[in-house]
Design goal:
The complex is a heterotrimer of chains A (171), B (292) and C (805). Chain A is α+β, with helices and mostly antiparallel strands. Chain A has 5 helices and 7 strands. In chain A, helix 2 packs across helix 5 and helix 4 crosses helix 5 (154-169). Chain B is of the alpha+beta class and 292 residues long. Chain B has 12 helices and 14 strands. In chain B, strand 12 and strand 13 (209-217) form a beta hairpin. In chain C, the strands form 7 sheets. A 7-stranded mixed beta sheet of chain C has the order 3-5-1-12-9-10-11. Chain C has a 6-stranded mixed beta sheet with strand order 7-15-14-13-8-29, sandwiched between helices. In chain C, strands 18-26-27-28 form a 4-stranded mixed beta sheet, with helices on both faces. In chain C, helix 9 packs across helix 10 (388-395) and helix 9 runs parallel beside helix 18 (756-768). Classes of the chains: A alpha+beta (171), B alpha+beta (292), C alpha+beta (805). Chain B binds chain C through residues 1-5, 38, 42-43, 185, 187-192, 194, 259-262, 264-265, 268-269, 272, and chain C through 117-118, 121-122, 125, 278-280, 658-661, 699, 703, 711-712, 714, 716-717, 719, 721-722, 724-725, 778-780, 783-784.
Chain lengths: 171, 292, 805
């Protein structure tokens, strides 16, 4: 008989690191990342799936972490904003091109929505052919599902173009 | 905004899903969760047990043949949107899923889940109706197909008994010499439509209009299909008066008003979207006839 | 000077942590803290007859439950009226927890503290509060009709009658060659930062000290309020605004009930307690803004010059008036904009409704004032058959007229005297930027595509940087690091960067050596707060003055060492040197070491300042009388009055005459905020402001039903724009420095939002030829308007179609 539980032990990979936690089954993934695993880079803006601030990558795909239960990602690989930086091969870390672009293009102000944008855009840019020049339609799609109250989005779109160009040059 | 306590099961077969549903009072099925989780967090829903389908093998397939497209209960909107075979056999699927919310929601939300949620604002409920589709329902008494008309009984309400789960949805193939179109007016891109329309136009071999059907989103309590053929029947496709079809559609619908649109405005949009989508769908159908 | 960074688009220093997930927002603090949740009123107006907490008591993990009965001393008194005003004759504020009566949905009634937020909500859900419902007053017209009242002792619902006049308006109106009178409305919206409010408190019983983190725009005043309400000495309380996820005004209000209750519980329980506001709470228990009814009478001559303006505003202040009547005063005094208004009378009646309180939201009454004035300009143009830009041009204050005295009293109690500006310059730039004179061709082109095209414009003047003061502290350490602190807070405006630019420029040090702290009462205890586009003006200038003080002291000490005249010294790249004499130099960090005579050499640098290392005169004490150890300086900037920024926006819209969808195809901004510290940041502020302006004009409204229930308390139904709804913006700049402050700067934070509704209403009206008298407007409302037999047709549209209205 299938077990019906109030609490579950989870094993998952977060930003490449195996993690374990025991959580009540009702724990939202957003809360588990923030409060059980201490990864507070993922932010919670609405808890009903509209703002996108809590977006993380589950097995590489952007999802709203407030609309997923932590128990559902048992065994999965989760990437949060903390996991976007890369090893530079010399013991240090380098920013993802989209992180660089956000800084260069002033694509953030208060920074609260930023992690959701960053992981969504990073996944989107990595999932496309970097050799192709990015279209405005692609840019609109990549930024269109997240709310930002500070920037008016102009510089976020600029950052997407900038990051795409960087990734194109870096091929 | 945190869910009330519930218990959780993630069975590994449809049989086990049904067992838990039968054994537990107040159990609810969880698939993509993109509609259910907000309701839980707002404590507008508080099921005693959530039965998660996500670990049931075999429910994530899109099966396409000449008859139509069968979409498994765990197929995400994004998966269906990117399925070119499905789009070829029934173009409304990709056209509609492209309008479902935003990509991150489409990555998680399931087509079948949104049908089982029975939201009259949802794209896929409307497409199921428009294509004359059905769902396969598994229950302790076995599997059966339920046609869309019998499925939807009210807003957010289906005819399914408690101990039952929808394992797939079937969308019949687009008939020959037919074209489709889908359009929405939404307040913000990605929002539920203020009004949406999906249409199918079928021509005869002489490029005359043989059948016109339309289904709308956010209009009425349950998805409906409106036969608009009489307004344009027999017209050569280039001369068909799609405005007349739009005008007929306006008389057939009974929209309600809400925060974002008055009933009158919705009725207006039904007319406009009908006229516009029919023109597009007819052009598509005409191109097929010409190509035959 | 190579370290001159003032005016450069320096990339932001705060971004390094914010783009890597290392920001520290309120809910990121206090792992393991207990969580608070609230039982809030489900009714707009009711008496509480009973609170039954019994069912909550067996929730595992419940720690404490508080009701009004548990509040003692000053906590049991009403919350403060933060900004009293003589014309606020009937101020009312709520209690931290409702005392027998609730006046809006969302008012806090019970606080629950539990092991985590899930459990706290479980317990809160089980608490049964019984109410006796009272009639609800919803909307400005219902309040005005006073069929029922919000507060029993205020039967007319009027909290304040604010009145200013610059002459005898009635005869002036009577004598005017043309007169118009009309009524219009602006709806409610809200700041809606992506991060809600939040409070974390930690009580150290051994140290008898309280540390509070709160997502606020005013940490020093929160500190004072907590000390007063919890009866603690000020020195026992420290308040820190951590990274704050947007404010836009809502976080200037304080103390929010939670800012008192969470520390109260932390002290009572001896445990860390945290409250993180959720989105639904933010909708129903924070603050809204904007709703007004405006009755306008205007007299003007044949050329469209205004001779008299008479405005009566009914302002919805919600259930309480904790922030006084700042918003309606700002409307009343900023309404006149860039125009000469020979005789002006304004009466504001600020009325109670059973809805969430109204306090400043970016723009803070200015968008409404701009809407009143600019729509008046449009009507005058329409009546006289004149170009809307021409009418504006004829009424503008001319550059030679500065300083220009409007003979009004501003929100800071100071006169409305414009310090500088070039309004004809703004208008000329705007017309060029948007292609104002070529719009007819665009109109024809759109018509050929089946669209209705319209253009509109709006101008504004914004009083920024009001006092009373801000301060800055600059300290050079022996390591060469420069610590900068100011008391006001940051919510994304990039202060860490712009203030560092100011210090780097003033002091001649690399910006990398400068570290800025804001909003931490441990670092700078005197401050007012971040509001009214004042941070750069106020703290920017205070920090500049503090840096100049440090520079002066550094030069004095260095002059001693280098045996030079301080006037011959300069600081560049952190090195003090004799101008034109290579080699005669001393690093600033060494000056810092020398500035603090030491006995103990705790590190290598310190050794240089010890008593046997320094050649000193035996005739003088190591620290000269009147001097102080350390290379640091604290200074304050307190302006005589506000400085007035200005701007002009234009919008071109295309409307689908079948669906009445409104597409903003061009949005042009000309902006003047005086000298600019960082143009990249200013442009970002404009972008964000415009997005909120467009949101407020076309998408956002707080939809209350007649019972006072907020119908759209979610991001599903409160339509904050996504990227897809915000138009591309073109910007041109003008700089008329302020003569009032050392840096010549004016505030930039709010400008972008102010003219949005006015410009878009003008454009939509131009496109459809029907008078727009209420904003925001949605497609469904536009459809209602164009088919309504009562809708007024504009004379311009009648002229265009050759039909007389």
């Amino acid at each position: 008989m299938t077990s019906v539980d109030t609490e579950r032990a989870l094993r998952l990979t977060v930003n490449g690191v195996p993690r374990e936690a025991t959580v009540p089954v009702r724990r939202l993934l957003s809360d588990a990342l923030r409060h059980d695993l201490g990864l507070t880079g993922t932010h919670v803006g609405c808890e009903h799936g509209v703002c996108g601030a809590c977006t993380v990558l589950v097995d590489g795909e952007p999802v709203r972490s407030c609309l997923v239960l932590a128990v559902q990602v048992d065994g999965a690989a989760v990437t949060t904003v903390e996991g976007l930086v890369r090893d530079d091969g010399r013991g240090g870390q380098v920013l993802h091109p989209v992180q660089e672009a956000f800084r260069e293009c002033h694509a953030l102000q208060c920074g609260f929505c930023t992690p959701g944008f960053l992981v969504t855009i990073a996944a989107g840019l990595e999932g496309r052919d970097a050799a192709e020049e990015i279209t405005e339609e692609e840019v609109d799609d990549l930024v269109g599902g997240n709310l930002c109250r500070c920037t008016g989005y102009a510089n976020i779109k600029k950052a997407v173009r900038h990051a795409a160009a960087t990734m194109r040059d870096a091929r | 905004m945190k869910p009330a306590p519930f218990r959780y099961a993630d069975p590994r077969s449809v049989g086990e899903v049904l067992e838990v549903l039968a054994a537990e009072e107040g159990a609810k099925v969880l698939a993509g969760g993109q509609s259910l989780l907000p309701l839980l967090s707002m404590r507008l829903a508080a099921p005693a047990v959530l039965v998660d389908l996500n670990r049931v093998p075999g429910l994530d397939a899109v099966e396409v043949d000449g008859e139509g497209v069968r979409v498994g209960a765990l197929v995400r909107h994004a998966g269906l949107l990117g399925d070119h075979d499905a789009a070829r056999v029934q173009p409304l699927l990709a056209r509609a899923t492209a309008n479902v919310a935003h990509p991150a929601i489409r990555n998680r939300g399931t087509t079948v889940g949104s049908i089982a949620h029975a939201d009259p604002a949802g794209e896929m409920t409307s497409v199921l109706a428009l294509t004359g589709g059905s769902v396969t329902v598994a229950s302790p008494s076995g599997e059966r197909a339920v046609g869309w008309r019998d499925l939807f009984v009210g807003p957010l309400e289906t005819s399914l008994p408690g101990a039952a789960v929808v394992t797939s949805a079937f969308f019949p193939a687009l008939p020959p010499r037919s074209g489709t179109a889908f359009a929405e007016v939404a307040r913000r891109k990605g929002d539920y439509a203020v009004c949406g329309a999906g249409v199918v136009v079928t021509l005869d071999e002489d490029r005359r209009v043989a059948a016109v059907r339309a289904s709308y989103m956010s209009v009425g309590l349950v998805p409906e299909v409106h036969d608009l053929t009489e307004s344009v029947a027999g017209s050569p496709v280039e001369k068909a008066d799609w405005a007349a079809a739009g005008a007929l559609a306006r008389t057939l619908v009974e929209p309600d008003g809400d925060l974002h649109a008055s009933a009158d405005y919705r009725r207006l949009l039904v007319g406009v979207l009908t006229e516009r989508t029919l023109a597009d769908a007819a052009a598509e159908a005409a191109a097929k006839v010409t190509g035959e | 000077m190579t370290t001159k960074l003032f005016g450069e688009p320096v990339r932001r220093r705060e971004d390094a942590r914010l783009i890597t997930g290392r920001g520290r927002y309120l809910d990121d603090i206090g792992t393991g803290a207990l969580a608070a949740a609230f039982v809030r009123s489900p009714h707009a107006h009711a008496r509480i007859t009973d609170i039954d907490v019994d069912a909550a008591l067996d929730v595992e993990g419940l720690v404490a439950v508080y009701t009004y009965e548990d509040l003692t001393g000053p906590l049991a008194e009403p919350l403060p009226v933060l900004i009293p005003h003589p014309q606020l004759h009937a101020p009312r504020t709520g209690y931290p927890l409702a005392n027998g009566e609730v006046n809006h949905v969302g008012e806090p009634v019970v606080m629950v503290v539990a092991t985590d937020r899930y459990v706290a909500e479980d317990a809160a859900e089980r608490i049964v509060v019984s109410y006796e419902e009272l009639p609800a007053v919803v909307g400005v017209d219902a309040a005005r009709a006073a069929g029922s009242c919000v507060h029993e002792e205020i039967p007319d619902n009027v909290a304040a009658r604010h009145h200013q006049e610059t002459g005898d308006v009635e005869p002036a109106l009577a004598a005017a060659p043309h007169r118009l009178s009309f009524t219009q409305y602006v709806e409610r919206s809200a700041c809606m930062p992506l991060e809600g409010k939040g409070v974390h408190a930690r009580w150290d019983a051994d140290d008898h000290s309280l540390r509070v983190h709160t997502s606020t725009q005013a940490s020093t005043s929160v500190r004072a309020a907590i000390a007063a309400k919890l009866q603690l000495s000020l020195d026992e309380v420290e308040v820190i605004a951590p990274d704050v996820g947007g404010g836009f005004g809502v976080k200037i209000v304080h103390p929010w009930p939670e800012e008192l209750l969470v520390p109260m519980a932390a002290i009572a329980l001896g445990r860390e307690v945290k409250w993180t506001e959720d989105r639904r709470e933010h909708f129903i228990s924070s603050a809204h803004e904007r709703q007004q009814r405006q009755e306008i009478g205007v007299g003007f001559d044949d050329d469209g010059r205004i001779t008299a303006l008479d405005v009566h505003i009914w302002h919805d202040n919600g259930a309480y008036t904790p922030y006084g009547i700042i918003v309606p005063i700002v409307t009343a005094t900023q309404l006149v904009g860039p125009y000469v208004i020979p005789v002006y009378r304004v009466v504001v009646e600020s009325v109670y409704t059973n809805t969430v309180i109204v306090t400043p939201y970016r723009g803070a009454g200015r968008p409404q004032g701009c809407f009143a004035m600019e729509r008046t300009m449009d009507r005058i143009a329409d009546v006289l058959g004149l170009d809307r830009a021409v009418v504006r041009e004829r009424n503008l204050i001319q550059p030679a007229q500065f300083p220009y005295d409007h003979h009004l009293t501003f929100q800071d109690g100071r006169p409305v005297i414009y310090d500088s500006g070039d309004y004809p310059g703004l208008l000329a730039k705007l017309k060029a930027l948007v292609g104002w004179d070529g719009v007819d061709a665009l109109r024809d082109d759109a018509e050929a595509r089946g669209k209705l095209l319209g253009v509109g414009m709006a101008m504004y003047v914004e009083g920024t940087g009001p006092g009373p003061y801000e301060g800055g502290h600059v300290q050079v350490l022996g390591s060469g690091k420069v610590l900068v602190a100011t008391g006001l807070t940051t919510q994304g405006q990039g202060h860490e960067t712009s203030f560092a630019q100011i210090v780097a420029s003033e002091l001649g040090v690399p910006i990398e050596d400068v570290e800025v702290t804001t909003g931490d009462t441990r670092r700078f205890p005197y401050a007012v707060g971040t509001f009214a586009s004042r941070a750069a003006v106020m703290s920017g200038n205070a920090i500049a003055l503090a840096a100049r003080g440090v520079r002066e002291k550094a030069l004095r000490i260095a002059a001693d060492v280098l045996e030079a005249d301080p006037g011959d010294l300069e600081i560049d790249h952190g090195v003090v040197q004799v101008r034109g004499t290579p080699g005669a130099s001393i690093p600033l960090r060494t000056v810092a070491v020398l500035s603090n005579p030491l006995r103990y050499a705790f590190d290598e640098a310190a050794k240089q300042a010890t008593q046997f290392a320094v050649q000193a005169s035996n005739d003088k004490p190591p620290v000269t009388p009147g001097d102080a150890p350390g290379l640091e300086h604290r200074d304050y900037y307190s302006p005589i009055r506000s400085t007035f920024a200005s701007g002009a926006h234009a919008a071109i819209v295309e409307i689908d005459p079948a669906t009445w969808e409104i597409d903003v195809v061009n949005y042009a901004v000309v902006h003047d905020c005086g000298n600019v510290v960082n143009p990249m940041i200013v442009e970002g502020q404009v972008h964000g402001g415009v997005a909120q302006g467009v949101g407020g004009a076309l998408y956002e409204r707080m939809a209350y039903d007649a019972d006072g229930q907020l119908q759209n308390a979610s991001f599903m139904d409160f339509l904050m724009p996504y990227a897809s709804e915000v138009p591309d913006i073109v910007i041109d700049h003008q700089q008329t420095p302020s003569p009032l402050n050392p840096l010549g700067i004016k505030g930039a934070g709010e400008a972008g939002v102010i003219p949005g509704s006015a410009a878009l209403a003008s454009a939509i009206e131009d496109a459809v030829g029907r008078r727009i008298t209420s904003m925001p407007i949605s497609p469904t409302e536009l459809y209602d308007l164009v088919r309504s037999p009562d809708a007024e047709r504009t004379a311009a549209s009648a002229r265009r179609t050759g039909v007389r209205a």
